Amino acid sequence: MAGYTNMTRFTATSNLWNFNIAELCNSPKLNYLSMTFQNSTTSYAPVALPTCLSNLQLLATLILTPAPGASTIGLAGPIDAVNWTAMSSLQSLQLSGSGLSGNLPLSWPASLTSLLISAMNVTSSLTSMNWTRTSITLLRMLNIVNLQFGSTPSNVIPANVITLAITTSGMTPYIIPLSIFQLGSFPRLQSLMLQGILTGSLSADLSTLTSLSSLDLSYNNLGGSLDVISWSNMTSLAYVILQYNNFTSFGSAFSNSSTVQQLYVNSNPNLAGTFPPYLLQSSTFNQM
Are 167 and 141 in contact (CB under 8 A)? Predict the structure, then answer.
């Protein structure tokens, strides 16, 4: 459509069920595209993910998601049908929709720095995600939500990632030991969230994350004592969320953790022992 030829930015946050996203593929100058799908009182088909997105060579930001709190299906169609590597300028990508399907693509643009995928019907063998370490070395934020994981990851996340979040809503829960992630490979990691996928115990290399400020390992099947790692080595750690697991004891955990401000360990039914007195006496600690 001729009206979109010179467009460089497109943002829409209203009900767009009658809008054909593919029309924007004829906008060669487009560098920012954000569409948020709202709930509708009318029954519409899901919004198809257009394969022609790969025509947008200058696009740096692409956001196609439901509005916060919306119950809409949102995007639909195979996520791997788009030639993502052709979008050589893409830096930030957010795709969300329960109608998305297919396999998580093995190739992404080398320019990508931020990736968020939320799609309950997209499958992934995480051992095949070596694209993250070998091809998108600029990636700083990786957020994968509700994918159906086919196997466990090993040495697949870029070493320079700052934010890592992988969560699932129970399709294949509790299949991955924390040690598989080889956390010692991420010296710059500042925020880590792994929910609904872990089993086993805490891994010792967690204590090597000296830049980590936020740790969320809730809603897993982790057990054992909390003192199997050296919490005091994590000198930037402020927020720790370990609720809804099966930890059995505090041991000497957090006995000298001067930076921790909030610690959540509720809903660990077998957790025994005294809450770390050091934290209770710390002037910086404010919640448990």
Answer: no
Q: Write down the pTM of the prediction.
A: 0.84
Instruction: Tell me the CATH number of domain 189-288, given options 2.130.10.10, 2.40.30.170, 3.80.10.10, 3.20.20.10.
Output: 3.80.10.10
Token pair for 90: 């893409």
CA dist., res. 194 & res. 167, Å (int): 6
Q: Confirm whether 1-172 and 189-288 share one CATH topology.
A: yes
pLDDT band at 129 (very low <50, low <70, confident <90, very high): low
Output the six-digit token pair for 186: 């991420």
pLDDT digits (tens, 9 = 90+) for 184-225: 888 899 999 999 888 999 999 999 999 999 999 999 999 999
| Helical (H) or strand (E) element with 125 | strand 123-125
149 in Cβ contact with 172 (< 8 Å): yes
Say which CATH class 1-172 falls into: alpha beta
> Which helix (H) or strand (E) covers residue 161, if one does?
none
Identify the three-state secondary structure at position 50. Answer: coil
DSSP string, 238-255: -EEE--SSEEEE-TTTTT
Q: What are the residue boundaries of the structural domains of the chain, listed by start?
A: 1-172, 189-288
Residues 34 and 11 sit within 8 Å (Cβ to Cβ): yes
Residue 207's CB is within 10 A of a number of other CB atoms, namely 19
